[in-house]
Amino acid sequence: MKTSIATVSIAGTLTEKLDAIAAAGFDGIEIFEQDFVTHDGGPREVGRMIRDHGLEITLFQPFRDFECLPEPYRTKAFDRAKHKFDTMAELGTDMMLICSSVHPRSLGGIDRAAGDLSELGEIARERGLKVGYEALAWGRHVDDHRDAWEIVRRADHPNIGLILDSFHTLGRGIDPETIRSIPGDKVFFVQLADAPKIDMDLLYWSRHFRNMPGEGDFEVKRFMQAVRATGYAGPISLEIFNDQFRGGDPARIAADGYRSLVVLLDDVRRAEPDTGAPRLPARVETGGIAFAEFASRGEEADTLARAFASLGFTRSARHRNKAVDLWTQGDIRLIVNREEEGHAATSWNARGTCVCDIGLSVGSAADAVTRAEGLRLEPFSQPLGPGEMAIPAIRGLSGSVMHLLDEGLSTVWEREFVPEDTGDRGAGMTHVDHIAQTMSYDEMLGWTLFYLSLFDMTKSPMVDVIDPDGVVRSQAVESRTGTGLRVTLNGAETHRTLAGRFLADTFGASVQHVALATDDIFATAEACAARGFEPLPIPGNYYADLAARVDLPDAVIERMRAANILYDHDGAAGFFQFYSRALPGGIFIEVVQREPGYRGYGAPNAPFRIAAQKRLARTKGMPAR
Ligand SMILES: O=C(O)c1ccc(O)c(O)c1
Ligand SMILES: [Mg+2]
């Protein structure tokens, strides 16, 4: 099945778009007329340039306001179409898209539309061209693919067919199952887009908020399953009108698009057995986070180590060959890497103290790598020292690394590390609850797609986190089983927010905090305090307000106040959390206790946490981050 993407989906000049689309792996493009018209070069040259990129022109579009016009508009519309047919011949494409008319003088009438299309089909046939008709969700008389199909059926012409676009069908809430009764040979072209479910004018929604399949809330897979059932075998093309993408990095957006298509087509193969075997291993089931590795040096590395000790961690092993310490507590492993060569050193040079590597437990590391390769994710490796194990890894957020560990690879701790004698039993923390990654808002969709396409994860609705100086959008992705990986993605739009400041200071997206789970937050807080841990101070007002709005005994609220513990309840269960102060690199540690059934991340408390962090930074005379 050929893959294609509309030029309108990608930012840049026509040449930049083509470079990005070709590099991403697509077979073809839908050329948007505007992208062609704005280019300084005739249609023959443009056609050649596209073919020189190894791409074919799958479609020329859009041709508007054609059908059902009274004279003299009707004749003019036919003349316009003939003119475009000339251009198409020079470009070297044989398929034109006509979208349903929004012309104020359009008369409507299914047979009138069919008659116009049939007559145009005859002109197209003489020139060896084909015309596909698409129902725009806001078309004046035709706004439903079922009506568009009836028009095409009555036009009854071999050069006239139907174009399906998932946005127009799913955006209007039309059941995609209705596609199954359309003959595949009359479907001339298929366009795909997803979108977030927001209540909005259809045209505005379509032109600004479409996104890649899997990035939104539409049932694009069910749409595509219905398309496959018709026997349609032509190109599958992304047509994504999105303001962020129009201003985004062409290579990144094109790669995301290609990835979304590969995943979707594989999901469809999996769901409809008669469409062929899946080509990729299934989405990878994640266990928890096996380790979080900090790149650091000197004084900052010492400060980190002291902070870990105050949180009840023990330096339980050192690497055989490297300046790498392993700090453990429960099933949690925090690594401090002071090496002056290799990935950690590169990360430290670029951004200072940071989380440079995340180790993830997976069912099968080999399957994870095969799937990642199929999605064209970037593999990572570096030279191994004596006795070191080859653990598969891929590039994660902004050049960071994600290692994939399965059962067979879990011997790495014994093989590569020398244990140290430890007496400390810890402060009761058991495992990593989640990591929080901060990125620019523009990167959020792409990273959501990364997690959802590689791993067996779902996303939760996006929430707004109110910072005193702006809004940060936050979205969680979590393993379907609920026991594996959990990540919150935080998208900052301004440098004035805590997240935005962190982003600027660390030169790109990275882990801003690591949240550790305990079964008894009060005991853990006490054990940490005994080790000299200083929590983020929370003002008294918070507890006065809490007492008024939640159903907790006064004595519990008093204990929370004493330990700077915050609380949330999501209707099902409660959640307790406290925070460290800022560590080197602006990173912080969160400690959480989830009551069984609590699904959130304490988002309602984020404004209080952020205000407290900014206040602390100000009183220390440090930049607020
Ligand atoms: O927004 C539009 O006008 C428009 C044009 C062409 C399409 O294929 C489409 O889906 C929308
Ligand atoms: Mg369309």
TrEMBL record:
GO biological process: 3,4-dihydroxybenzoate biosynthetic process
PROSITE patterns in UniProt: VOC
UniProt binding sites for a divalent metal cation: 134, 165, 191, 239
Keyword Metal-binding: yes
Assigned EC number: 4.2.1.118
GO molecular function annotations of the record: 3-dehydroshikimate dehydratase activity; dioxygenase activity; metal ion binding
Pathway membership, UniProt: Aromatic compound metabolism; 3,4-dihydroxybenzoate biosynthesis
Domain VOC, first and last residues per copy: 431-594
Cofactor: a divalent metal cation
InterPro entries on file: DSD, Glyas_Bleomycin-R_OHBP_Dase, IolE/XylAMocC-like, VOC_core, Xyl_isomerase-like_sf, Xyl_isomerase-like_TIM-brl
Gene3D superfamilies per the UniProt record, alphabetical: 2,3-Dihydroxybiphenyl 1,2-Dioxygenase, domain 1, Divalent-metal-dependent TIM barrel enzymes
Reactions accelerated catalytically: 3-dehydroshikimate = 3,4-dihydroxybenzoate + H2O
Keywords: Dioxygenase, Lyase, Metal-binding, Oxidoreductase, Pyruvate
Binding site for Mg(2+): 434, 513, 590
Biological function: Catalyzes the conversion of 3-dehydroshikimate to protocatechuate (3,4-dihydroxybenzoate), a common intermediate of quinate and shikimate degradation pathways.
HAMAP family, per the entry: DSD
Similarity field: Belongs to the bacterial two-domain DSD family.
Protein name in UniProt: 3-dehydroshikimate dehydratase
